[in-house]
């Protein structure tokens, strides 16, 4: 695929060994659950570096150690404690590397755009008040002192899909012929990614660090998703990522309006579709490849191939929000044993979601695990989707725009009527046969 770098979310030994003696630069990650221990214990940091860096470096070209992943996006009591431990852990990992005389590995941490309290227009960019002074200022000081990079996960898909009528799809896909002027800075923007990146640059500038370099640690566009997730399709995914590659590999570098001409190293998320990941459908469809390793669409990561050289796709059908009703049903090939367990879960947790399935009630027939599970899934989802529930159930459920209960009830009525007629005919025949034998 002609990739130049790869970012891992762990330190998988097999993968790190396979990456040895390649030209791929590698970023590895300290798991979130190890941050607090490392922050309070230099020996723990030394041990982590020994086990996860020294065993592979320099044969594997490790260039970044990333401490945690989107740590500041979590808000439990334990997570908030981790906020305070993040920068101390980064310092201790850096000290361990320095003690091993390793100078070419930078330390950073990937953060999400929710670290910003304000992001539009970009000139209003500012960090959240709960982390600005206590976490972001020390972090920026560390990154500036070590000449490291600020890693940011930035997805134009999310602001666009949450407001597709006010944000142009072409603006999100780098296809816009129009532009937006930031009234505060006077800078002109012709794509959503630049707006998002510059809001972060303005936020850093307000804390006194205008020059810390950026790395896009995640970006991309989903190639599929649930019915109610607009714009998640192969055409948009290919368009976004191909245009992204063209923008980021152009020489001389384009940069952003606030930092013209500056190179921004960029990681596309992700290599594979994650077919077993929970959550909305888009969570499983960010890959350049299927979960089996086959390409979903053509892409040249070097940027040497012109976007116009690729074959065209059919027009997308879901670029506007779906307005009709959606139901959640069991997949046709679902394992019956697993389906039974999921059915039990949905009914037990569903706060009366399965009352209609009781013997003699309106949805009891037909008596099949698949039908009962489909009803339970749809009922549970309808009750709890507002609280984050999804139509997934470990891959046993899928969305549909066809009302399954209407079909089933009509089928049951038809089946019942047909069964009655058949029974009546058989009785008549048996009576006639009995009468004949008596004569």
UniProtKB/TrEMBL annotation:
It is found in: Cell membrane. GO terms for molecular function: glucan endo-1,3-beta-D-glucosidase activity. It catalyses: Hydrolysis of (1->3)-beta-D-glucosidic linkages in (1->3)-beta-D-glucans. PROSITE patterns: GLYCOSYL_HYDROL_F17. Residues 326-411 form the X8 domain. Its main location: membrane. The keyword Glycoprotein applies. Pfam families: Glyco_hydro_17, X8. InterPro entries: GH, Glyco_hydro_17, Glyco_hydro_17_plant, X8. Coiled coil: none annotated. Its EC number is 3.2.1.39. Gene3D superfamilies: Glycosidases (3.20.20.80). Keywords: Disulfide bond, Glycoprotein, Glycosidase, GPI-anchor, Hydrolase, Lipoprotein, Membrane, Plant defense, Signal, Transmembrane, Transmembrane helix. GO terms for cellular component: plasma membrane; side of membrane. It is a lipid-anchor; GPI-anchor. SMART domains: X8 (SM00768). The chain crosses the membrane at residues 411-429. The keyword ATP-binding does not apply. One of its GO terms (biological process) is carbohydrate metabolic process. Belongs to the glycosyl hydrolase 17 family. This is glucan endo-1,3-beta-D-glucosidase.
